Amino acid sequence: MITFDKIPLYLQNLYIIILMIIATLMLILVLMEVFWYFKTFALTVTLLLFGIMAVDIIGKLLLVRRQYEHLELNGFLLHLECTPIYLHLLLLGMELIYLLIAAFIGYWIWKHQFSLNSIREAFAKLPTGVCFASDTGDVLLSNNAANRFVWNVLGCELLNITPVWERLRQIENEQQLSNQQSLNSIKIMLEDYTVKEINRKIIRVDNKRFVEIIVSDVTSLYNLSEEVKNNNENLQNIRNELKELSKNLVKINHEEEVVRHKIRIHNDVGNTILATRNVLNSENCSRSDLLNISAQWRNLAEKLIGMNGETSEENSIQFKEILDTAEQVGVKVTLHGDFKSFDEHAFIVRQVLRETLINAIRHGQADEMDIYVNDYFDRTELRITNNGTIPENFNESGGLKNLREGLVREGGTLSFETDKIFTTIINFKK
Amino acid sequence: MRVLIVDDSRQSKFYLESRIQTSPDYQVVATIASAANAELYCIRKSVDMILMDVCTADNTSGLEVAGKIKKNYPDIKIIIVTSMPEHSFIKKAREYNCEGFWYKEYGEMDILEVMDKVKNGRYVYPSESPVIEIGYCKSSEFSPREYDVVRLLADGKSRQEIADELGISSRTVRFYIDELKSKTGYEDTMKMVAEFVEKKLVINSIR
């Protein structure tokens, strides 16, 4: 059996040289992994392989040295000398494989790691403008897009972010692209109608503050938001028109009712005329026929009278109706003055008048009421008195309370006097 | 029976008066334009029956006043009269316990017939609201909730506001709107709502 010590010395040396080459390459790999991209697992594997090789090298070196010095081999070296050569070759083969594995691991790491240069290159070529500045505004790092943007818009270099930001804010105020302004965001439109949004943020790295500026193209987003804004305005206009239509619907309905009545009466007139002609043309026209026709014409006349349009001055009509109603239910109302002074607040005044009337009848059993309209230089006053019994504990309940709120909303005041005669007083300032 | 007519249309008032006068069972106590003045007659117990229009003068809702009168004076019979096919009127009239409901233009019965039945203690309501065509479908094909959504759209409310008011989600509101558009064949929501308003299926000024 050939053992390691039996092979010629030059072969033993060659073996060791090869082993050392492999070990050196492994060492280089280890150093690369430690200094460039430290990956614990890969490093551990590589170190392990290197360790095995190191032991092998040392053993072989000792063996060869002893042989050179013609010293006796003992112990471990004796065992080493006696191991067959194929085992040593096998170990060498395995170490070669280990080297290939370590090289592959190193290569894989190298392919998947970013080098500083690649990061820098990618940053410089970003389509979005990015810039980092110190607290004082001095630019530390900016990419091509950011530099280009500042040069195109302001015509200067991007050296300090503070004056650039102020100038951009001025441009934003002049253009007024958006109603809402944000402290850390600026939107401006360039000459080619693209819209850029510049966002500012404070970031912390290693306990130091830096200012990050990002310039993004928001043209399509801006166009969409303008479209949405226009659509919303249109929709709001349509909604307002619908509301108006809805409000006027009652009036429109009345007019339609009038038209329908007119059509009905027109038909009635036509029929009555035809009937009259038939009767008059008839040879056997009797007195009862004539009386019937006469009744028809009388009926028609009444309907036509009822067709007279309503008089104008809606407020006066409504006030009159309240007074007439009061008379109908047995309350004699005397008006001193003219309700015209309250035309501007007619609706709420009518509500107060009605409520006062209802309370006077319900609680005071009043049958007389006096209404005084006093026009002073600074205010207009309405005083309503009645001859009903004055309540012992007068409290404003739901109806009067709501009315007071309504009056206050229109700038009026409501008060009561309960000394000798119950009096409701409304005042509106001029 | 003493009858109070509340209608702000002179022609309607005249028509109702002339019809009632043909019957010896009824006497018109007064005709007024504003429902707000109706309560005064009730306090003095001057009326037994009221023919109440829905949209009256002074922007007063006849339905609201009817509800108030029925609460305070339950013996007084009230018949709601209207020419508007607005969907919610019948429902409100029932809620307020009004004895009758009569459509001026679409009534199946004569007003005197309605009054006679109400006088005899019956509740007289039309079998259904007038059927109006909206787009490709009929007004009877919409659900009450769909009417609520259309009414709020006609009020100028946004989808979220409608959702908040009805207590449903915005997505559900959108579903209802899509359903309405699908039924009517309208592609534009506002045009569809305008049709509802124009045909008086929803009225917001008086509710």
Tell me about the biggest sheet of chain B? 5 strands, parallel
Please name the fourth-level CATH homologous superfamily of the largest domain in chain A.
Histidine kinase-like ATPase, C-terminal domain
Number of helices of chain B: 9
- Looking at how many chains there are and whether they match, the oligomeric state comes to heterodimer
CATH class of the largest domain in chain A: Alpha Beta
Say what the CATH topology of the largest domain in chain A is. Answer: Heat Shock Protein 90
- β-strand percent of chain A reads 15-25%
Shape of chain A from CA axes? elongated
Biggest chain contact: A-B, 44 and 45 residues
Structural class of chain B: alpha/beta
Architecture blueprint of SSEs:
The complex is a heterodimer of chains A (430) and B (207).
Chain A: H1 9-35, H2 40-68, H3 76-82, H4 85-112, H5 116-124, E1 129-133, E2 139-142, H6 144-154, H7 161-175, E3 185-189, E4 195-205, E5 208-217, H8 219-281, H9 287-306, H10 314-328, E6 332-336, H11 346-362, E7 368-375, E8 379-386, H12 398-409, E9 412-417, E10 423-429
Parallel strand pairs in A: 6-7
Antiparallel strand pairs in A: 1-2, 1-5, 3-4, 4-5, 7-8, 8-10, 9-10
Chain B: E1 2-6, H1 10-21, E2 27-32, H2 38-43, E3 49-53, E4 55-56, E5 60-61, H3 62-72, E6 77-82, H4 87-95, E7 100-103, H5 111-119, E8 133-134, E9 137-138, H6 144-154, H7 159-166, H8 170-184, H9 189-198
Parallel strand pairs in B: 1-2, 1-3, 3-6, 6-7
Antiparallel strand pairs in B: 4-5, 8-9
Helix pairs in contact in B: 6-8, 6-9, 7-8
